Amino acid sequence: MAGDMVKTVNKIPTRAEIEQKDKWDLSKLFKSDADWDAAFVKLDACAEKGLGFKGTLGKSAENLLHFLDFEKELGILEENLGCYAQLRQSEDEGDGAARTMLGKFMMAYAKIEAFLAWSAPEIQAIPDFDIKAFLADKRLDEYKIYLEKLLRFKPYILSEKEERIIAMQSENRGLADDAFSALTNVDMDFGLIDEGGPTGKLPLTHSTFSLFLRNSDRNVRKTAYNQFYENFDRHKTTIASLYAGSVKNDVIQARIRGFSSARAAALFPDNVPETVYDNLIDTINANLEPLHRYYALRKKALGLSSLCHYDVYVPFVADIKRRHTWNEAVDVVCSALSPLGPEYVDTLQNGLLGSNGHPAWADRYENKGKRSGAFSSGCYTSDPYILINYKEDDIGDVFTLVHEGGHSMHSWYSKRANPFMQYNYSIFEAEVASTFNEELLFRYMLGNAGSDKELKAWLINHRVDDIIGTLYRQTMFAEFEKRTHELEEAGSPLTVELLRSEYRALLTKYFGPELAFEEVSDLEGLRIPHFYNAFYVYKYSTGISAALALAEGVLNGGSAERDNYFAFLKSGGSRYPIEALKVAGVDMSSPKPVEAVCKRFSQLVDELSAYL
Question: Hey, what CATH class is 176-188+237-320+425-612 in?
């Protein structure tokens, strides 16, 4: 549409060359970097003020209230400072001033955490009779859920001195992750790949690796695959040692606090039973047949006598070109989400388009140095910002937009329904709202494709690949994490040979009999950065299971199903995730939602087979 930026493929603009209307507006956080600097100075004063509450919290409900008011004030300040710095850096990763800003904040944050490490143990040390009386005080209503969650950790909280030591070591716990990132993203050189086209040789990187695996030329795919993993092969012992160190740290931290296992410690904050994790793995393992059938279909569609690991991402439904300007993409997204009602749709539309030429939320287009991919991020006092690198000729970016819009609207409802100390929802819940939106967009576009069989086949293939990536692949990762931590806890050293053996067994099981693996294929288990944040990836699988169940209910149900879904969006941190999803109508403690998405996947594979 008129006014939308028309980009050329030959030149990536600088940040300054992007029109102001196409950038997000961070002024709700700080008007300028100078204002950020002025607010940053207040952090040290806040820390000093906090120390004055020490030793008083158990004396009265009023004393506890004053400290919690202070903690809220500090938390909002920290959130604003950190969010602004992170968003500024994401605009241009090469901006030294923004990187300095974020570095200063992270150092100050760690210092304050250590400085106030006494507070949680002091609250948890308040006698049960007294804390019960405090919680009955109406003045503490705003903090009741926060306190109840904090008190739940009481059996695992150590002495003030011990907690301070642990807080002081918080930065060190990420060293294995930092070293892995530096080695694989900076020091390792993957070389060049000749695509055979007019562009000549192109660099092979983590970002371009996935693009090469989608290349229609099998020789290009094979060369990129082997060249990529040859680099990991040369560094396999170092990387295996880094991952083993990360797992060992998970186990040590869990044992220090008295948890039965690293997994139990990771699931405890969300109050997720370990049976949920096990149900996911068991249910997926019992429903691998549709996945194996899909790979048989892929092998046939590609006309291959042998399907290799580097053949599983190349599209076998031709990429389609359906151009959507930004405004047109927003129109499609809002039409797809219309079953959610005018408040939801109008709010998202205004956030994405803005008014008077100044969009409030979205940073739309690529610029030099801008962080790749997309995310939704914000804080209690700001808009739920969206970073995206939108391309008008990539229909996949319309799905990215609706996905990030789901995150942002989840935050929008959560902030309006909850006080600061309980508005943050868990990662377990975060992927539900975004994947829910993707399912509505998929069904809308499929239903409006008419006689366009090419578009229908592409949409179904796209959805099939999404479910594989989000459900099956992440569950395989979750099973690997479970196994590696069990081995460490049982006293088995995580050598490179053991890690490769465990991962190869999972590759064989999940991909099935159609896949022919290379000798280096099991090195994939050494390149996944999510493994340095243990027991996180399973949430993608549970998220898509819950999202598809909720989408089915909203689209085929009535006002009650929609109201229940909004009750979930408004829950924020007021409920634990399993309870919040039960309010919406999905019981993730049961295997049924996972079984349902497996059945849905099987149906889509059948539909795709029919189109082909």
Answer: mainly alpha
Sequence-distant (6+) residues with CB within 8 A of 154 are 124
- Residue partners of 52: CB distance under 8 A and separation at least 6: none
Q: Is the pTM of this model over 0.85?
A: yes
Distances 110 to 84, 105, 149 between C-alpha atoms, Å:
17, 9, 22
Known catalytic membership, residue 289: no
Active-site residue (options: 91, 195, 404, 524) = 404
Helix (H) or strand (E) holding 415, with range, is helix 396-417
Q: Given a cut of 60, is residue 36 above it in pLDDT?
A: yes
Averaged pLDDT for residues 33-38? 95
SS3 508: helix
Task: Give me the mean pLDDT over the 565-580 stretch.
Answer: 96
Query: 43-57, 87-101, 229-243: which has the highest mean pLDDT?
Result: 229-243
C-beta of residue 514 within 8 angstroms of C-beta of residue 292: yes
pLDDT in tens, 80-137: 999 999 999 999 888 889 989 999 999 899 888 888 888 988 999 999 999 999 999 9
Angle subtended at Cα 56 by Cα 52 and Cα 58, rounded to the nearest 5 degrees: 150
Backbone angles phi, psi at 196, to 5 degrees: 80, 5
Tell me the CATH number of domain 189-234, given options 1.10.287, 1.10.238, 1.10.3470, 3.40.1350: 1.10.287
Average pLDDT over every residue of 297-301? 95
Across the chain, what does the average pLDDT equal? 92
- Delimiting residues of CATH 1.10.287 domain(s) in the chain: 189-234
CA distance linking residue 584 with residue 432, whole number of Å = 11
Q: How far apart are the first and last CA of the chain?
A: 34
Q: Are 428 and 270 in contact (CB under 8 A)?
A: yes
pLDDT at 9 over 60: no
Cβ–Cβ under 8 Å, residues 426 and 546:
no
Residues spanned by CATH 1.20.140.70 within the chain?
17-175
Instruction: Output the six-digit token pair for 180.
Output: 């892995």
